[in-house]
Structure prediction request, 195 residues.
Amino acid sequence: MVNDRFDSPCWAHGPPRATGTLRALQRRLDWKESATRLIECPSSGKTRMRKIFQFESPRERYLSDAAVVWCYDHRFDQVFRKLLTRIGIQFPDPVRIAGGAKTLASPARESDREFVLEQIRLSMELHGTKTVILMLHSDCGAYGGLKAFESPEKEAENHRQEMHRAARYLKEKFPELSIQAYFVDFGGVWEATSE
Ligand SMILES: [Zn+2]
Prediction:
């Protein structure tokens, strides 16, 4: 099920449109030789954008295999992609925020948790998402890093409990969802099994 609002480009004042002298200027430009394309915002008349490069993105809509709540710590980017491949997630809807699943388990602010819930709800509505993957990683700044724990084992156990907390909360809000949880450390990926 896909919402109609997905058809609208992300423009605050409607689709971009070249007008007046700008249109005349555009006609004079040789698009093949010039990478510059001018687009004017109808309301302000000031917006100008320069095309950086040409790239054809797929136009087909998709159904998401899973919404993935995950931290944006770049050190774990490669293992993150590898995990998605390993568990067969081709079309993820990543919700990347500092701390990842911590935002559902023990958020700094309740509004953060509401934000993540809304992202998941939208993924379900727009892309038919039926699965959520909750993830935490070692040495996460949102938890004060690895140094906030006595040992890596203590950190791992804390994060295991946090993922269960996040899963319980999410299940209360969306009982129809299937939930998986993974902890990533510097040596690999661990799946959290049921308590
Ligand atoms: Zn982190």
In short: Helices lie at 20-28, 77-86, 102-105, 110-127, 152-173. The chain is about 30% helix and 15% strand. The pocket of zinc ion is lined by residues 71, 73, 99, 137, 140-142 (CB under 6 Å). The first helix runs from residue 20 to 28.
